[in-house]
Please model this.
Amino acid sequence: MKFWKMNGAGNDFVIINNLVENIDMDRLPEIARILCERHMSIGADGFMAVGKPSEGVQADCRMLFFNNDGSIGEMCGNGARCISRYCLENGIGDGDMVTIETTAGIVTGKRINKQLYRIRLNDPSVIETEKELEVDGVTYNCSYVVLGDPGIPHIAVDYPAEAARICGAEHLKDADRAKLFELGRKLRFHPDLPKGANVNFYEMTGENELDEMTYERGVEDFTYACGTGTGSVVTALTLMDRVSGENVKVNVRGGELYVDVEEVDETGEGTAVHGLYLTGPTNIVCKGEVTDENLC
Model:
């Protein structure tokens, strides 16, 4: 089985071309668990398989995304950028563009240069800019955003509020990681969130700029970056008039991501966001053949 190891702003993935490998779908969760386990195998935040689009779906390919625990994920923003590059460098797509079917809907990717890629994320299907969640007697004022349908649930937590007191530091980058992890895990499994959620702590650091750390479900830890989380946070902040929605810079552990919110509509059912774009780096770490004997 041939593979590529890639990362997008530090969010790393093992990728296979299932158009060639023809691996039974039932085996993919097990393969994901084994290959993504660090120290024991290749190691990654997630595993992706490129396949044929579903019948009747207009797309160049289908992206099946698995968290490193083997659970299927609806979509991954940094993963979609990596898949976009993988596809275009393997002859899938049209020129500098590729259209990808995901569990959460259609995603389009565009090559900006050799390493920089821009994707259109799934439009939010749920937006609640104000959502109160109580943990250990403390109420956190969050925003709740679901990208796609069925979508990827995210909450955005403004770090300098109550979280700063709990985590023992004024700024997010200096927060006690163990305490932030504990809080992130409790929010991720909060009973008021029907699917759980990815937890995105953020701190405004300037005009149109913020720091972000994401506790990702499935990985069950902080990752170097979370593309859908970054898009969700900027969506909420744009609707709250805290950022412009144009070329918003988000600093994550793995580098810099940029988000654009193209269109905001007020409808009878609430606020709708269309055209949510994420731009950031991709990196091909290695290419090779899987020989992991635990897959026998």
Observations:
- The two ends are 12 Å apart (CA to CA).
